Amino acid sequence: MNILDKIVADKHKEVALKKSLIPVNQLENSVLFQRNTSSLATTLRNSATGIIAEHKRRSPSKAVINQKVSVQDVALGYETAEVCGMSVLTDGKYFGGSLDDLLLARAAVQLPLLRKEFIIDEYQLLEAKAYGADVILLIAAVLTRDQIKVLSEFAKSLSLDVLLEVHNQEELEKSIMPSLDMLGVNNRNLKTFEVSTEISKALSTQIPDDFVKVSESGISSVAAIKDLQQYGYKGFLIGENFMKTENPGANAIEFIKNLKS
Description:
Distance between the termini: 46 Å
Number of helices: 12
């Protein structure tokens, strides 16, 4: 069983438990559920930099990245840096995140927020909306085409943007459908955890222009972004590069300043 299979198996148990504790109508009656969402896809289309900055405490491949900084401080720093959006990891067991992180980020900033999670059930989309997300992530590696269709269409009915993540040509081909807003190419090989932006370049021509192209993982330099922009990428998800520093927000400010120059 690879790490992704383990995470998904645990996620099924976790979602079943949550459903038994918190009924759907409780989520639908939460204050934030009625909030007007912001479109990350639109923000990326109109941006010269396209940075989506992440809050991430740890990961299965890196163990601890940053346990010290508060999610509010990170969010405020990212907003000051003028990132296009913020990705908030809400998986507890493997990434040390929670839905409360999403809530605290939402209370601190107006940025479009992405719930970064292993989504397998419509219930998690209701949670995302109730906790202040604007965007949800679907991972092609763990979903069938039918599941992608059902989940993405449900997300759209909740006015949530959909970022679909692929790792290879096969996943991309099964995933393309009108209910997606953004197609993300993850540069990390899930089997080996090696990272290379070559996969983003190779798949760039296969992604129709109706979708905002996003490159994810292993982007640590301004040069890498300028290189990928030539392949039509408008969004760049940066997690560890900012989070491994003492002050992720300040690091993002400096990075974006260099990107603009």
